[in-house]
Design goal:
- By secondary structure, the protein is mainly α.
- It is 55% helix and 4% strand.
- The chain has one domain.
- The longest helix is centred in the N-terminal third of the chain and has 33 residues.
Length: 100
């Protein structure tokens, strides 16, 4: 796919915004997961709630995070999923440069 210089600049700006949103969602989510893993009273209470009440909430949060990631983490040029790489230099589908 061929892009003009203006389109490339726009794609790089959009990629930067997408990457920032991804970071804003990922860091607190990972902190929550790590905090839960290190919790002293695992299995009885989670964040002060009985495990039976907290588990569906956490599963819902995980689903929201995954849906957000699959919708957000796409190439601004071709809209294809960028994969597992956190900071890819180029899109593996269309080849556009995502950042300098």
């Amino acid at each position: 796919m061929e892009f003009t210089n203006d389109q490339r600049d726009q794609i790089q700006q959009e990629y930067g915004a997408r990457r920032k949103r991804q970071l804003i969602m990922t860091v607190p989510f990972l902190a929550l997961v790590l905090g839960l893993m290190m919790s002293e009273n695992q299995g009885t209470k989670i964040l002060g709630l009985p495990a039976e009440q907290a588990a569906p909430i956490l599963i819902g949060l995980m689903a929201i995070f995954l849906i957000f990631s699959f919708r957000n983490w796409r190439c601004p040029g071709c809209r294809r999923y960028l994969g597992k790489a956190f900071n890819p230099r180029h899109c593996h589908s269309c080849g556009v440069q995502l950042h300098a």
